[in-house]
Structures are given as structure tokens and as C-alpha cells.
Amino acid sequence: MLKAGGALAATLAVTGSQAFAADATASERVKSGKRKIMIIGAHPDDPETGCGGTMIRLAKAGHEVISVYFTRGERGIPGTGLDESARIRTAEAIEACRLLGVKPVFMTQIDGDSEITQERYNEMHKLIEDYKPDIVFAHWPIDSHRDHANCSNLVFDAWIKMDKPFELYYFEVCSGIQTMQFYPTDFVDITSVVELKRKACFCHVSQGPERWYEKEHGRMEEFRGMQSDVEYAEAFVKFQKSSCDLQKLLN
Ligand SMILES: [Zn+2]
């Protein structure tokens, strides 16, 4: 359910087969009604917490959903070295994606040290060129975490430089603490899949989700549900008016 208008070249380390990058062309996908959809988050757990319910619904509807991790969360486990944290958090993200029914892809930025450089612009551009998504969900750029803001800016730059080849939506994470000034245009009802979404988020054991999930994302899901007249929802900002109707893709 979606209600609009205030009520939706560095080497990439790829898990699984890369074959899906070169599968059906965009026009073949449009004909079939199926889309290739990328969620690009800065750290393991960002795509899941911000869009997990929507990812499940899109994957169940037969779309190809790819969860991209800008970093591997190298600084996310206090007292643990970067490589070991990356190893642990990569495994957690892979397990979360398995539950969500989506493909994980890992980029090469470093948690807490993400950069916006010519090389990094090119890396994001190349990722999108390689996978050719029809729709991309990016972090909202006004965010207290530099990695979230940097990730968002690189996606936006690729979208502009590539002449807007995909539909662009923004998602929120920890609104009020991280995402700020976010006024949704679209809502997705995640009531039927909220338990599975939570299971996927709780795969991120190293992050102690039992300490923060309910008071942050749980409350967001309820609040967005209240705004859209359902029990639990996720909220998005669609960049601009376009022909994309997220609601139609969910069924
Ligand atoms: Zn994050």
C-alpha cells in the first residue's frame, strides 16, 4: 500500500553470481512489469532498517532487489579491528539479505572515512552503469552521519551525470538523530512483513539491535503507519514527479 501526496572504479566485491548484472534489458523488464531495484546504504543494517519491509515486498512481487553496502561497517564494533569488524558485519549483512530475499553487493569505502573524490564519483557511476537499476533508493542527504550524507551525494551525482536513468527515492534511518528534515511523499505498508523485517535487522548481532531497534526504528514504523493509516509503514521521498508508481510494484 502506498499513499502519495502526504499520506511514497574500484573493484566491487560481489557476493554470489555477477550474472544478474547483465540479465534482462530495461525494456524487457518494463514489458514484464518487473524491475531491478537497488537500495544503496552506507553501512550493513542501513538498507535493512530503512527499507527492509519494502525490500521484502518488492522481492516477493518478483522484482530483482539488490542491497548495496557502501562500507562494511569497519568501525562499528568498538575494540575490534577494522578487518575483523568488516568480516563480522559482512557476514551479518549476507544473512540479513538471505532473509529478505535480496542480493548483497559490497563497495569499497571505509566506515567513518568515506570520501567524495573523483575516483569515488567514478566508482558509484560504474556501479550503477554495471547493474543498470530501474529504481534506486538512496540515503536522504541531510543526515548527521557523514557516511550517509556522502553516500547520498555520490548517488545523486551519478543520477545527474548519467542523465537520470533511474527513478530516485530517498529513505530515512534513525529519523531525528541521523536523518533530518525528511518529509515523506510516499508510504509503504509493511504490516504483513514487519516480523521478517525485524528478524533481518536482528541479524546485525554485533550492533546490539535489542538496545535500539524498538525505540528508534520500531517507533518510526509505528509513526509512519499512523500517518498512512496502517499499522506499520516505511516512508520515502520521491525525488520528483515521474511515471513510477511504487504501489503498483508491490503487488
Ligand atoms: Zn549507517
Explain what the structure shows.
The chain has 251 residues and is an alpha/beta fold. The protein has a single domain (2-249), classed as LmbE-like (Rossmann fold, 3-Layer(aba) Sandwich), CATH 3.40.50. Helix content is 41%, strand content 16%. A 9-stranded mixed sheet has the order 1-8-9-7-6-3-4-5-2, sandwiched between helices. Helix 2 packs across helix 6 (194-201), helix 3 (82-100) packs antiparallel against helix 6 and helix 4 packs across helix 5. It is globular. Residues 4-22 have low confidence and may be disordered. It binds zinc ion.
CATH architecture: 3-Layer(aba) Sandwich
Assign the CATH superfamily. Answer: LmbE-like
Please state the structural category: alpha/beta
Mean pLDDT, nearest integer?
90
Largest sheet: 9 strands, mixed
Number of strands: 9
Unreliable sequence segments = 4-22
End-to-end distance, in Å? Answer: 9 Å
| Gyration radius over CA | 17 Å
Shape: globular
